[in-house]
Design goal:
- This protein is of the alpha/beta class.
- It is built from 18 helices and nine strands.
- It folds into three domains: 160 residues, 3-Layer(aba) Sandwich (Rossmann fold), CATH 3.40.50.300; 84 residues, Arc Repressor Mutant, subunit A; 139 residues, Sec63 N-terminal domain-like fold (Orthogonal Bundle).
- It is globular, with a radius of gyration of 25 Å.
Amino acid sequence: MDDGGQSLAFVRSRTEAVALAERLADDDLAARMGIETAAADAADEVAAVDGTVTGERLADCLRSGVAFHHAGLRTGHRTAVEAAFRDRSVACICATPTLAAGVNVPARRVVVRDQKRYAGSAMEWLPTLEVHQMCGRAGRPGLDPHGEAVLVGDENSHDELVERYVEGDPEPVESKLADPASLRTHVLSAIATGAAATEGEILGVFEGTFYARVAGAGGLADAVAVAVDDLVAAGMVRRETGGVEDYRLVATAVGETTSKQYVRPETGERIVSGIETAAEMPSPTTLTVFEVICDTPDMQDTYLGNEERASTYRFARANADVLTTAMGDPDDFEAWLESVKTARILDEWIHGATVEELVETHRIGPGDLDSRIERAEWLLSAAEALAKTVDVRIPAISRARSRL
């Protein structure tokens, strides 16, 4: 920094990113680099985004020439931080690995402090490809004479770091179509748009893909056959028979609507099931429809801590009469509780809770709330279209969407 260089520091979690930034802010890097005025302007821009505590903490750090960056920040905050860094108004950003993906913020030095993160039940090494992606932020062609990437370790981890990240090869790239859920989505699209009407024609659609190259002709054919069977079982596709082995694949009305709304087949199936259940309730509420759309793979998960698990469980019991899923029914109870938490957050939002109240009560970031609202608007639009397709009227859907 004494030479005018900037740094990116990658750590394992949002909490660590904020803590490191606030610790570095005590060193007043803005004064050290002579960027006090520019840093103050960046801080004012961030403070103007909203009045949340998160925004105020970020602005305080920026005045000292440091910032933190993670997915829990609002889009306006992240954009302001990235722009300030490119303008050299910030000396250092402390970030989670999300900053390394698709964001143009190169620095002279990248420091990967944490090479492990918590993954469900234990700490696990970051993929080599992910660490290389972070290190790839080092270097500003035309602006800096060089770029450096530093992995922080000790005598116990040195050999492992060298073997894994310096000398080791990145993991092989895998096609997203290898995920059966992804393949089902694209097979349904091929059928619903008329691009293919037989399994042979579907294979023709996918034959030029990376997945076809990796899986081989036989593997692709088997995977497509399974996807078609799954779509038929889900009521998204039907076989129109013209003979013993002569049939064409046609999207059902629900399948066509699902594809047009760009939601996964599993999401369409869950929404239809949910609104049909809601239609039998005496008075389905906005919480009812939020639970339906949040209990789909197209809604982002919301972290559920131990304390929140108990309160969410009590909330679900207290509101069981307006939820479309009985508490004993979910195959994955924890995942369903997460969806109930998200539904609760959205319902409290439309009934007047402030961003700060929701952030503090439910341990989410302002950016988390924004992303859930954005997805909910999309999924409620899909729910309206699917309700019309199956001729079910749930006024709470349009009420939730308009108030969101």
